[in-house]
Amino acid sequence: MLRILGKASSINVRKVLWACAEIGLPFEREEWGSGFQSTHSAEFLALNPNAMVPVIQDGDFTLWESNTIIRYLAARYGDAALYPTEARARAMVDQWIDWQASDLNSSWRYAFMSLIRHSPSHQDPEALGAGCVQWSRHMQILERQLASTGAYVAGSGFSLADIPIGLSVNRWFETPFDRPSLPAVSDYYQRLSRRPGFRLYGNNGTP
């Protein structure tokens, strides 16, 4: 059985858990990370030298990096609806997964650390204001994409890209600041909220 190492509150671990739910893939999860078993232990570092969760072990195969993991699981155990085999359709899914990991993730980092984690080193009002503006600008990119597709981020059907994007949208709505109105994002979030996988793992790790 698939072994997942990482705490369920981690947004990156939740990508993997949600992907497993969409695929119908059974797994065993072990608590690793802050507050649990240390990712700096020799045992964990032998699996991932970056000391980060998640890590999976699929038989004798070990893999880290959350977006790589969900691609692997979808390609091996999922179907073409979740992760297309046709080159252009798959590229569209990968494009939005990569955009979430790079541009969107970077845009919300300061605001999240300030307003949710209450990090003492992220309390500069000017930097926070700039961070919120940057985050909103990137969410407006997502708004236009969802208004264009009328459904999901890479097209009319749910795909692997909606897992990391959906978790970022959850973070958007759960962070307390003055957000612009994004009706297509709000509708999208409601669609995601009806999925069993999201109800299990999408809402900050709680049903």
UniProtKB/TrEMBL annotation:
GST N-terminal domain location: 1-81
Stored Gene3D superfamilies: 1.20.1050.10, Glutaredoxin
Sequence ranges assigned to domain GST C-terminal in this UniProt record: 86-207
PANTHER family assigned: DISULFIDE-BOND OXIDOREDUCTASE YFCG (PTHR44051:SF19), GLUTATHIONE S-TRANSFERASE-RELATED (PTHR44051)
Pfam families assigned: GST_N_2
Name assigned to this protein: Glutathione S-transferase family protein
High-level lineage: Bacteria, Pseudomonadati, Pseudomonadota, Gammaproteobacteria, Aeromonadales
Entry-linked CDD domains: GST_C_2, GST_N_2
InterPro entries: Glutathione-S-Trfase_C-like, Glutathione-S-Trfase_C_sf, Glutathione_S-Trfase, Glutathione_S-Trfase_N, Thioredoxin-like_sf
PROSITE patterns xref list: GST_CTER, GST_NTER
